[in-house]
Design a protein that fits this description.
By secondary structure, the protein is an alpha+beta fold. Helices cover about 60% and strands about 10% of the residues. The strands form two sheets. It has a six-stranded antiparallel sheet, covered by helices on one side. A three-stranded mixed sheet has the order 1-3-2, with helices on one face. It comes from Kibdelosporangium aridum. Belongs to the peptidase C40 family. Keywords: Coiled coil, Hydrolase, Protease, Signal, Thiol protease.
Length: about 350
Amino acid sequence: MSRRLKRGALVASAVITLVGAVLPVPAYAQQESPTLQRYRELNTQAKEANEDYLKAVEDRDARQAEITKAGQDIEAANKTKAEAKVKEDAFRGQVDALSQASFRGARFDKLSALLTGTSAKDFLARSSALNVLATDNNTALRELVGAVTAAADAEKKAADAQKTATEARDAAAKLADEIKAKKADLDKQINEITTSLDKLSPADRAALQGELDKGVYFPGNGIAGKAVTSALSRRGDRYALGGSKPPVFDCSGLMMWAYAQHGYKLPRTSREQYKVGRPVSKSELQPGDLLFYGSSAATIHHVTMYIGRGMIVHASDYGIPVLSAPMEKGGKDFFAAKRPIG
């Protein structure tokens, strides 16, 4: 190799080395400190505990609704039973009276009417009266059977409703204990998180939040697009588990609130929100789609909203406000995406 070529290679190598030293490494590509990694783990564990807690609360509320419905069913069944009993008593008396009915003091059938009648005209009159009695008796019998059946059905419905109420009360009582335990565990984890947050270094705090995106987005005028605009309007709001309205949100609370502003109701938890809508691939994402994170549907612990241009908006962790960020900031355990509407 000539001296000129050697000199050129050395210059090029020096330039590459210099550029590599000068160019900043993206924040998300930097290695996080063990302290920050542990802090993120604590947040993920708390989110999972919060999902379990909220699911228990939803189950308790569902059982309470069953108890209320069962009470209404019992009341309605008892009312129907009482009305049927009154009707049964009335028609039973009518059937008894008609069964003992007589024409001019004697019981008749058509043959006896013929044998005792003094004329054809007399026979026809007697037969006509007997036909009326028979028709009335059949009608009364049908009504009596119907009343007896209605009373029996009402009694069974009341018994079934009472059984449902008892089972729901037992389940609600069990869930109350479960909720109390889950809430205590959740509060303990939140306390650990806030204590750990105070111990983060300035560098860790900066890495935790990352660069703030203040971009302007035009997601469209449909319900999904309007939900994006609503979610973006909450950038800067505080994060806390259980938050579902300004100025405090958790991840699923933000999604629920944003869609609710435009008349579309989402469930409260990210695991329940995952059950809504249809699946979409990453290549099909549109503004308003929801992205879920976890190892499975049963372990989903975070949800974000796609806003376009490879960006999301979400409420993620304690110490981080609601913000928009690149998709990869949503989490390393992306599970699936869903389109809630459209």
